[in-house]
Structure formats: C-alpha cells, structure tokens
Amino acid sequence: MTTVTTTQNAQAGDGGSMLLTLMKLRTFIALFAVIAFFSIFAPNFLSTANIILMSKHVALNAFLAMGMTFVIITGGIDLSVGSIVGLCGMVAGGLILHGIDLQIGYTVYFNIVEVAIITLLVGVAIGAVNGLLITKLNVAPFIATLGTLYVARGFALLSSDGQTFPNLVGNPDLGTTGFAFLGSGRIFGLPVSVWILVVVALAAAYIAKYTPIGRQIFAVGGNERAARMSGIKVDRVKMFVYMFSGFCAAIVGIVISSELMASHPATGNSFELNAIAAAVLGGTSMSGGRGTIGGTIIGAFVIGILSDGLVMMGVSSFWQMVIKGIVIIVAVVVDQAQRRLQQRVALMQLAKKD
C-alpha cells in the first residue's frame, strides 16, 4: 500500500513539474500563438514594413513595462506612467517651440540633446514625487500614483490650454533642429527607438541581476519587513524604482513626439494598462518579489503584436480594450496558479526525499 502511494505521489510530482514548466513558458507560448494566428488571419502581417512598424510599437510598450516591472517587484504599482508620457512630450515640444522665457526680455533655447536631458529629468522628478509620497507620507502606491496621474495630465493640458504643439522641426538659427531623428530615424535599418530599447533593457537586466540595488529590489518585494531588518534601505529602493519608471515614461514621451513631430497633452492615455499587462504576462508577480526584464520584453512583444494584429484585422478599439483586460486577468490567474503549484511541487519533492 505504501509502495503504491509513493508511486502515485511521484507520478503526481512529475505531472506537476511538467505543468509548472509549461506555466513558466507561458509567455513564449503566447508569443508563438499570436504570431501564428495573425500570420494566418491578418493580411501582410509578416511584411517587412509591418514588422518595422510593430517593432516601434513594441519598444514603446517595453520601455513602460520595464519601469513597471521594477515597481511591481517591490510590491507597488505605478498608474501615472501614461500621464508622464503626455507631460514629458509636452515639455519637449514646448522647449523646442518656445524655449524658456526668463521674463526679462530674453528666451533661452536648447539643442535637441539638452531638450532630451531636461525632459528625462522631468520624468525622473515625477517618479521621485511618487516615491516620496509612498515612502515619506506612507500613501498607498495605488492612491499616490493615481493622484500623480491626474496632476501630470492636468499640467500637460495647462501647458498649451489643451492644444497641440505642432511642427516640431525646430529652427536652425536656434539650434533646435534634428528632433525627428529620435522617432523616425534608423540605424542599420532599425528604428532608433529599438536601439534605445536595447541599451535600456541591457542596463535594466544588468541592474536586476548583478547590482546590490537589483538584489535589494527583489528582497523588498519578497518580504519588506525582513529586508528592512536586514539593513536594506527600503525607502531608497522604492525611490529608485519609481524614478526609473518615470525615466522610462519620459523616453516614451520623447519618442512619440519625435515620431509625430507634434506633442499632444492626451498622449499616453491608458498606456499604463499595456505596461501592467506586459509585465504580468512576462512573469512579474503582482504580489511582488518575482519578475525578469527578459520576460517583460517578451510580454511587451505579445501585447504589441496583439494590438497591431487586431488593428490589421479591423477589430474595434473597444473590443481591443476588452481583450487586453482579459489578458491581464488570465495572466494574474495563471501567476497565482503557478505560485500554488510551485509550493505543491516543492512539498512533494520534500516528501519524496523523506
């Protein structure tokens, strides 16, 4: 009787291990599934022009998702990234068109590199505000970033009275030309935004895996109290992840404005949903403590390809929102199932050893 029970447990453990492996590979399975589906049902889906266009869209999702990944790993959430995209786009557009009026009859204009740096600093500053609200005032991340979402969007609208900053070609005499390169330029046939993504993704992956702050991010998300008692400066870690999230959102604001050669205050509306979906689909646990940059990039590919494929098939934007919502729900459900299965398999393996 004991022999039969042991055999059954071993078989159940092997089956659980196989199912757990499939769950861990769910992002790759989903990626291959959407590629296969749209290759069959969407016309010209695999054409060179469409692949390049999709790569640009994926890059935008991936930037936001990388920042969101670090935030979620710590057990937080950042709902403000879409509004930061819009505000930073308006900052870049305003600096190119109008510069900074010093109110003494003199206006300062900046070259494109300086415009990009200032815009990135604005994104980092908003992220720092989120971090301070959460760490110093003990505001829940959901509420803090929800408030920042409205504040940033409001400032974006106020900067132009709700109007667009058009024709961001710049003025050669002022040294403000060349903005289009960031959004429309190519290097070795690939969009500049894709190359920027490669650099940022490699840096983020290195931080997560090989630096003390990276290990501390996972420690805080795994058990914040234990991390604090072990000497980790939890507040500093949280400040870092929200500032990095703001930095990534600022990049997206710059790239979109550069691609369109115009800045609109409503840019980035609901982008946070795509970022959360990509991060969760890529294996980042909403309960914190687990996630990878590589998985998030794959998740961004799934979301980007899904969005573009649905557009090519003529699916209504309303249905696209429904589908993305379902993707988020399914991803969270599978993540919770994976956590329970991991615990069960671990217990079976311990019983097997005994």
Automatic annotation (TrEMBL):
For this record, the Gene Ontology CC terms, alphabetical, are: plasma membrane
- Identify its membrane topology class: Multi-pass membrane protein
CDD domains, per the entry: TM_PBP1_transp_AraH_like (cd06579)
Example of a GO MF term: transmembrane transporter activity
- Pfam families per the record? BPD_transp_2
Question: Main subcellular localization, coarse class?
Answer: membrane
PANTHER family assigned = ABC TRANSPORTER PERMEASE PROTEIN YPHD-RELATED, ABC TRANSPORTER PERMEASE PROTEIN YPHD-RELATED-RELATED
Protein name, per record: Erythritol ABC transporter membrane protein
- Species the sequence originates in: Rhizobium subbaraonis
